[in-house]
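Predicting structure from sequence has reshaped protein science. With that in mind, we have picked out one protein's residues alongside their backbone shape tokens:
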Amino acid sequence: MTNTQWETLSNQAVAMAGLVYFLALLVHLAEWAALRQPAGERELVAAGESGPGLETVAAQPPRPPSERVAFLGRLGFLLTCVAGAVHFVALLGRGMAADPNRVPWGNMYEFTVSGTFVVTLLYVVLHKRFGLAWMGPLVVGFVLTVLMVAVIWLHDEVAPLTEALNSPWLVIHVVSAVIATGTFTLGGIASIMYLVRQRAERRAADAERDLSGWIARVPELPALDRLAYRVHAFAFPVWTFAVLITGPIWAHEAWSRYWNWDPKEVWAFITWVVYAGYLHARATAGWKGRKAAMLALVGLATLWFNFIGINYFSTTSQHSYAAERVVDEPTAPVALATLW
């Protein structure tokens, strides 16, 4: 296949992956809709009529999902796996379209497509181990939205790597950064759902009723808290490796300085400090629950601001997406595109 054919295949695969992600999202939303408890049954439980009292009903174990709900869940997960496979073909085609062949991390569009693929991959791999079926529509919706943004606003033609990017550290640095970003995103979703379920439980308690519908399928608060902690604890050392080890080494190779106080470097360090504070507060001060979830979301906000905000709003960053386009003179610093 020619480079043009590989690029066409990549573009078509991205479009096909988006379509399959959309179908998976529809199926998961249908699954959530099927979980809604009939209004008549809710009223019966609330009134305590023709059966055990409210305390007895609340103590009963949750009913197993209906066959329809189970089928929709399996179908949604299968479609997500298919979309992830097509997503990988898009990345493969993007790398093969370059001359010479390279990893598909040369600009913001490619990094975005790679980052969303990692989110999907982590969800699929951890789906059974951590019981993430409830997270399906959230993950798929996030990946689909970011892919749409990448295709509509960030798409670039395949081009050779710049001199600074043409380094073995491209693979080492960016792989660790992408893995950490995808993992932090999953941890952020768990933290968001902790706050959502906590609020739903308070409203249900005020109304003297049990949780129902899709929110009842979300794990209980202690389980969500543990999940968020375990995911963040895994992502943090990976982010440390990317930001404080491989990043400075690559910067020294490209610019003869380990640290340049570049806006992207500074914000990457701010993200590291926030997540370090999150883990430290949990380990020493016993922060759990709402406090920990709020701090985790602050870290997620700094992470994505570093990715989006610096690339578009900074005029001084050598990592800026805009800076890559204005470097014309041989003596000018070579930007590191959108890489972390």
Notes: The radius of gyration is 23 Å.
